[in-house]
């Protein structure tokens, strides 16, 4: 398996909805655990998991040319939060 560093910087949708929920849960748990234990590396790891879940883009997945997006899942909502314009 090759890791492409140039492709790693290309932002693309590669985190599926199920993977996103797992990242949110694991990230929140690590952040909570880091607060209780006073552990900064756990805090950073939790923040990265939450951030990659929110953006639905993982640089490591891009570098490995991997995606967990199911072709049947709905497309992400636009940044403005508005769907198609109603007439």
How many DSSP E strands?
A: 0
Largest sheet: none
Mean pLDDT: 87
Stretches with pLDDT under 50, minimum 5 residues: none
- What structural class results from the helix and strand content? mainly alpha
| Topology order in helix (H) and strand (E) letters | HHHH
Q: What is the count of helical runs?
A: 4
Q: What coarse outline follows from CA principal-axis ratios?
A: globular
Tell me the span between the first and last alpha carbons: 50 Å
> How big is the Rg?
15 Å
Report helical residue fraction. 40-55%
- Our estimate of the beta-strand percent is under 5%
Could you describe the 3D structure shown?
This protein has helices at 5-8, 17-37, 40-55, 59-63. Helix 2 runs antiparallel to helix 3 (40-55). It is built from 4 helices and no strands. The N and C termini lie far apart (50 Å).
Quickly describe the structure:
By secondary structure, the chain is mainly α.
Fold blueprint:
Elements: H1 5-8, H2 17-37, H3 40-55, H4 59-63
Descriptive tags:
0% strand; globular
């Amino acid at each position: 398996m090759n890791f492409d560093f140039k492709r790693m910087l290309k932002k693309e949708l590669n985190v599926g909805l199920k993977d996103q929920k797992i990242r949110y849960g694991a990230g929140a748990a690590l952040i909570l655990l880091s607060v209780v234990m006073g552990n900064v590396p756990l805090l950073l790891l939790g923040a990265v998991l939450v951030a990659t879940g929110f953006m639905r883009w993982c640089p490591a997945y891009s570098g490995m040319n991997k995606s967990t997006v199911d072709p049947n899942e709905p497309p992400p909502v636009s940044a403005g939060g508005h769907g198609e314009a109603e007439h």
